[in-house]
Every structure is written in structure tokens, then in C-alpha cells.
Amino acid sequence: MVPRPKDEDLERPAGSRLDLSEAHAIYRQMALYDMAFEVQFGLEMSFVRTLAVPSIAKVLMGTGEILARPLKRSLDTALMMYELIDSGPDSPRGRAVIRMINQMHRAVRITEDQYSYVLTTFIVPAVRFMDSYGWRPSTEREKEAVTAFYRRVGQLMGLGWLPGSYKEAERFLDAYEAESLAPSPEGARLMRATRDVLATRMPKGTRWASPTLVRLMLDDRLCEALSLPVPAPAARRAFALAMAARRAVVRKRPVRAEPRFRPGRSGKDVYPHGYELEDLGPPREPGEGRHVIPTSSGEMS
Q: CA dihedral defined by 154, 77, 215, 122, rounded to 10 degrees?
């Protein structure tokens, strides 16, 4: 278990020269504009990693959401993350999302280490994906910003351990996975349920090859833990060449002018007419009431 930070360190992004508003601005620019493709797929692969931890897969299986509503569950998770990225965790809309996440987590038993691991999956694998396959690698300042952003999310969720730096997040994730990654019946079944959902995230011309592409985005150890066939070395080399070709093309293009995410308007696969925050997440039990959700201040393009 990584030592907890001191209480006074929780009021700032430890080990960082960025304040929270700077960190949010940098990460928002990365996720919605500069590195939108890379951040999206990095986050998708972050979710897949959690299925390779048997104890977490068992928790996810117990909720029944992934098996009953795989597309909605996956999309709702993505929309909540992008709501935080767009508005910021300390905005009224961001605080509403944090309250929803905390409410959902009260219904399941999750250990402190599991919470911390899931938080670091949003930081480290996503950055590594950018560095391996992005049109450019992430900068140290961007790594710092991503870490500070999710550190603040973890604070608002009441987590005990939070990474003080990107390197600390890396050490925690690598140590946790070295101990915890393993095949399980629950992980394999959840991965099968998630496979078709991942295809919807792929560019249209590549969806037919989605099962192979997902395996190529994961290392051999992850494939084995998810009961997936390990890609042949030749397939990995071909994938690396294809991503290098994409990198060369994308470098010549201007940065996108429209954000990848539009609050209340994205998620057409499940919400063709748009969504309210209270639409996200599992069905509420009778008597739970409705969340009071602030109107988005983001651009509704």
C-alpha cells in the first residue's frame, strides 16, 4: 500500500507547479482538441484494464450493469468522465457528477486500493497510449496536469491515497498490476460483453477489425488476463507501422476546431435527442428522487 499523503497536501496538486485551474485548462485542451483521439482511446483502454483484476471484475459482475446494458453503461461512464473534463470537477456541473459517482459507489464494496488503482488507470495507461500511438508524445507539463486533475477528482470522492506526481501514479499502477492481474471467469465474461461496445468507438472503416485492434492496443499480459488471444509479433509490428503512418498524416493537419465532446449533446448511440445528467448511470430505485443538476455552461455546438 502506498503511504497516504499528509492532510495539508490535499489542498494542492502535490509535486506540481500548476494550480487546479491551469491543470484543468491543459487537460481539457488535450482531451477535447489537441489529443482528442488519443485521450478517448486511452480512457477506453483504461476501463478495459480494470476487467483484468479479478477482484474488480467480481464487483462489476455483481452490479449486473455491464451484462444487462453494456452500451449504456460504457457510454454513461464516458459521458461522466467527459463532463468532468469539460466543466472541471469543481464546477457546479462537475460537483453534480461527483455526487452521482459517489452515490453509485455506495451500493458496492470497493477497497481503498481498488479505488486508487482505478484512479491511476485514468492517468497512466491513457498517457502511455498517447506516448506510444499519438501524433505526438505528451509533455511533462501535460503529465503533470492530468495527474493534478485526477488527484482533485479523487479528493472530491474522498479517497485516502492520491498520487502526488505522475511518476508516483506510475509506480502505484505498475506495482498493483504486478500483484493483481490474472484471468478470471468474471473478467472474461465482462470482456465479451464489452467487445461489441468497443467496436462502436472505432472509426467506421475499422470497426470490422475491432476485436483484433483492441488486442493490439493491450500488452500481452493484459490479453492473457482477459482471456484474449495474444497477437502475433508480426501483427504488432504492422499495427505500429499503421499508427506511425497515422502520426505522419495527423501532424500535418490543423488542430480540430470543434470539441470532441458537447455536454448534453454527445452520446447519440444511446441518447439520440441529447441527455440530462440525471439520465446517466443505473436506474434509480423508487424513492431515491432526482438529482438537482445545474444547466451546462459549456458550448452546445
A: -20
CA-to-CA dists, residue 112 to 19, 36, 163, 271, 296, angstroms: 26, 30, 13, 33, 32
- Number of residues written out for the chain: 301
Give the whole-angstrom CA distance, residue 30 versus residue 180: 31
Span 243-263, pLDDT tens digits = 999 999 999 999 888 999 999
Q: 206 φ, ψ to 5°?
A: -115, 0
Calpha distance 19→5 (Å, rounded): 18
Residue with cell 479523487: 154
At 49, the pLDDT band (50, 70, 90 cuts) reads very high
Could you tell me if 173 and 127 are in contact, meaning their C-beta atoms sit under 8 angstroms apart?
A: no
User: Which H or E element spans position 250?
Assistant: helix 233-250
Place of cell 432526482: 290
216-229 average pLDDT score: 94
pTM of the model: 0.85
Which three cell numbers mark 227? 482471456
Please write the tens of the pLDDT for every residue from 142-189.
999 999 999 999 999 999 899 999 999 999 999 999 999 999 999 999
Of 230, 233, 243, 253, nearest in space to 203 by CA: 243
CB 104 within 8 A of CB 281: yes
